[in-house]
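Lab meeting tomorrow. Please check the following:
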Amino acid sequence: VQLQASGGGSAQPGGSLRLSCTAPRTIVSSHFMGWYHQAPGSQREVVARESSTGSPNYADSVKGRFTISRDNTKNTVFLQMNSLKPEDTAVYYCNANNPIVGRNFWGKGTLVTVSS
């Protein structure tokens, strides 16, 4: 299963970026879809994830700044990142997970750099 992530890049502190992740419809409709990030020298951590019914959860560090959403017509999940901080700098990975059937998929990472 291929997850196609895009939208990374550079932003100044306080700026915004939007990440996109496209996956097969059968995956988006039946899996938790989420975003993780991994900073240099750190473990990969969850940023935001959403159930197939649209119940989102966020890491405390991004609550109020990041929003996960999906467009089912395009089989795409988004991560809108506002009020970016330098500590948001990391490689961001799209993830699809269904613990009931034991399936877990990762997209290729996309780099987000926040600096002035």
